[in-house]
Amino acid sequence: MTINYGDFKPKTKKRCGNNPLKKGHTFREIQSIAHVGPDFIVKVKKETFGDDYVFESPRTRDSKNTQAIRLIRAGKELTEVALDLNMDGSEVTKAFSDYLELKKLDRLAELLSVENNEKLDFILMIAEVFKKKGMEKKEEISNALVKINDIEAIQTQIKFFK
Protein backbone atom coordinates (compact mmCIF):
# COMPACT_ATOMS: atom_id res chain seq x y z
CA MET A 1 0.00 0.00 0.00
CA THR A 2 1.48 3.33 -1.02
CA ILE A 3 1.02 6.20 1.40
CA ASN A 4 1.82 9.75 0.43
CA TYR A 5 0.97 13.29 1.27
CA GLY A 6 -2.27 12.91 -0.66
CA ASP A 7 -3.48 10.56 2.06
CA PHE A 8 -3.81 13.52 4.40
CA LYS A 9 -7.31 14.99 4.52
CA PRO A 10 -7.91 18.25 2.58
CA LYS A 11 -8.51 20.16 5.85
CA THR A 12 -5.13 19.00 7.11
CA LYS A 13 -3.40 20.09 3.92
CA LYS A 14 -4.96 23.53 4.25
CA ARG A 15 -3.86 23.92 7.90
CA CYS A 16 -0.33 22.56 7.35
CA GLY A 17 0.48 24.30 4.09
CA ASN A 18 1.85 22.36 1.14
CA ASN A 19 3.43 19.46 3.00
CA PRO A 20 3.72 19.23 6.78
CA LEU A 21 6.56 16.75 6.43
CA LYS A 22 8.72 19.28 4.59
CA LYS A 23 7.67 22.30 6.65
CA GLY A 24 9.59 21.15 9.73
CA HIS A 25 6.55 20.33 11.84
CA THR A 26 7.22 18.02 14.75
CA PHE A 27 5.48 14.66 15.07
CA ARG A 28 3.22 16.06 17.78
CA GLU A 29 2.18 19.01 15.66
CA ILE A 30 1.35 16.78 12.70
CA GLN A 31 -0.52 14.38 15.00
CA SER A 32 -2.64 17.15 16.49
CA ILE A 33 -3.32 18.88 13.16
CA ALA A 34 -3.91 15.77 11.04
CA HIS A 35 -5.41 13.57 13.77
CA VAL A 36 -3.12 10.68 12.87
CA GLY A 37 -0.78 8.47 14.87
CA PRO A 38 3.01 8.38 14.78
CA ASP A 39 3.05 5.12 12.80
CA PHE A 40 1.12 6.77 9.99
CA ILE A 41 3.52 9.73 9.97
CA VAL A 42 6.54 7.41 9.80
CA LYS A 43 4.98 5.51 6.87
CA VAL A 44 4.28 8.76 5.03
CA LYS A 45 7.83 10.03 5.69
CA LYS A 46 9.34 6.76 4.43
CA GLU A 47 7.22 6.95 1.28
CA THR A 48 8.04 10.61 0.75
CA PHE A 49 11.75 10.58 1.56
CA GLY A 50 12.71 6.94 0.94
CA ASP A 51 13.60 4.04 3.20
CA ASP A 52 17.12 5.40 3.85
CA TYR A 53 15.79 8.61 5.39
CA VAL A 54 17.24 9.23 8.85
CA PHE A 55 14.51 10.36 11.22
CA GLU A 56 15.25 13.25 13.50
CA SER A 57 14.13 13.10 17.06
CA PRO A 58 10.43 13.95 17.33
CA ARG A 59 11.41 16.58 19.91
CA THR A 60 13.71 18.60 17.70
CA ARG A 61 12.47 21.96 18.92
CA ASP A 62 13.84 23.30 22.17
CA SER A 63 11.52 24.63 24.82
CA LYS A 64 11.32 28.40 25.28
CA ASN A 65 13.31 28.05 28.49
CA THR A 66 16.09 26.18 26.66
CA GLN A 67 16.08 28.74 23.85
CA ALA A 68 16.30 31.53 26.43
CA ILE A 69 19.24 29.85 28.18
CA ARG A 70 21.03 29.55 24.82
CA LEU A 71 20.48 33.26 24.11
CA ILE A 72 21.65 34.26 27.60
CA ARG A 73 24.75 32.12 27.17
CA ALA A 74 25.37 33.87 23.84
CA GLY A 75 25.44 37.20 25.70
CA LYS A 76 22.01 38.63 24.91
CA GLU A 77 20.41 41.02 27.37
CA LEU A 78 17.40 39.71 29.27
CA THR A 79 15.11 42.25 27.59
CA GLU A 80 16.29 41.07 24.18
CA VAL A 81 15.60 37.45 25.18
CA ALA A 82 12.10 38.41 26.32
CA LEU A 83 11.38 40.21 23.06
CA ASP A 84 12.94 37.57 20.78
CA LEU A 85 11.05 34.68 22.39
CA ASN A 86 7.89 36.56 23.37
CA MET A 87 8.36 35.65 27.04
CA ASP A 88 7.20 37.57 30.08
CA GLY A 89 9.59 38.82 32.74
CA SER A 90 9.07 35.95 35.17
CA GLU A 91 9.82 33.36 32.46
CA VAL A 92 13.03 35.14 31.46
CA THR A 93 14.05 35.50 35.11
CA LYS A 94 13.45 31.76 35.59
CA ALA A 95 15.60 30.99 32.53
CA PHE A 96 18.35 33.29 33.82
CA SER A 97 18.15 31.63 37.22
CA ASP A 98 18.40 28.21 35.55
CA TYR A 99 21.42 29.43 33.56
CA LEU A 100 23.17 30.62 36.73
CA GLU A 101 22.39 27.34 38.45
CA LEU A 102 23.89 25.42 35.53
CA LYS A 103 27.00 27.58 35.76
CA LYS A 104 27.27 26.65 39.46
CA LEU A 105 26.22 30.14 40.48
CA ASP A 106 23.03 29.00 42.17
CA ARG A 107 23.70 31.04 45.32
CA LEU A 108 23.64 34.14 43.14
CA ALA A 109 20.50 32.87 41.41
CA GLU A 110 18.83 32.38 44.80
CA LEU A 111 19.83 35.89 45.84
CA LEU A 112 18.41 37.35 42.62
CA SER A 113 15.05 35.61 43.04
CA VAL A 114 11.99 37.78 43.60
CA GLU A 115 11.51 36.38 47.12
CA ASN A 116 14.96 37.60 48.17
CA ASN A 117 14.71 41.05 46.60
CA GLU A 118 14.74 42.74 50.02
CA LYS A 119 17.89 40.84 51.06
CA LEU A 120 19.63 41.88 47.86
CA ASP A 121 18.77 45.54 48.48
CA PHE A 122 20.16 45.23 52.01
CA ILE A 123 23.40 43.62 50.76
CA LEU A 124 23.83 46.37 48.17
CA MET A 125 23.37 49.04 50.88
CA ILE A 126 26.01 47.35 53.06
CA ALA A 127 28.38 47.10 50.09
CA GLU A 128 27.91 50.82 49.43
CA VAL A 129 28.79 51.63 53.07
CA PHE A 130 31.96 49.52 52.88
CA LYS A 131 32.92 51.22 49.62
CA LYS A 132 32.43 54.72 51.13
CA LYS A 133 34.64 53.72 54.08
CA GLY A 134 37.35 52.64 51.64
CA MET A 135 37.05 48.94 52.48
CA GLU A 136 37.24 47.07 49.21
CA LYS A 137 39.38 44.05 50.07
CA LYS A 138 37.81 40.86 51.33
CA GLU A 139 40.06 40.73 54.42
CA GLU A 140 39.17 44.29 55.46
CA ILE A 141 35.45 43.58 55.19
CA SER A 142 35.81 40.26 57.00
CA ASN A 143 37.72 41.94 59.86
CA ALA A 144 35.06 44.66 60.12
CA LEU A 145 32.29 42.05 60.34
CA VAL A 146 34.19 40.16 63.06
CA LYS A 147 34.57 43.40 65.04
CA ILE A 148 30.83 44.10 64.65
CA ASN A 149 30.10 40.60 65.99
CA ASP A 150 32.46 41.19 68.93
CA ILE A 151 30.79 44.52 69.75
CA GLU A 152 27.35 42.88 69.66
CA ALA A 153 28.57 40.13 72.02
CA ILE A 154 29.98 42.74 74.42
CA GLN A 155 26.70 44.71 74.34
CA THR A 156 24.77 41.54 75.14
CA GLN A 157 27.05 40.87 78.11
CA ILE A 158 26.66 44.45 79.38
CA LYS A 159 22.85 44.14 79.23
CA PHE A 160 23.10 40.85 81.12
CA PHE A 161 25.05 42.45 84.00
CA LYS A 162 22.74 45.50 84.32
Textual characterization of the structure:
- With 162 residues, the protein is mainly α.
- It has three domains: 5-49, no CATH class; 64-112, no CATH class; 118-161.
- Helix content is 65%, strand content 0%.
- It is built from nine helices and no strands.
- It has helices at 10-16, 27-34, 38-49, 64-73, 78-85, 89-102, 106-112, 117-132, 138-161.
- The longest helix is centred in the C-terminal third of the chain and has 24 residues, at 138-161.
- The radius of gyration is 29 Å and the shape is rod-shaped.
- The protein starts with 9 loop residues before the first helix and ends with a helix.
In short:
This protein has nine helices and no strands. The protein is an all-alpha fold and 162 residues long.
Using brief descriptors, characterize the structure shown.
single chain, 162 residues, mainly alpha, 3 domains, 65% helix, disordered N terminus
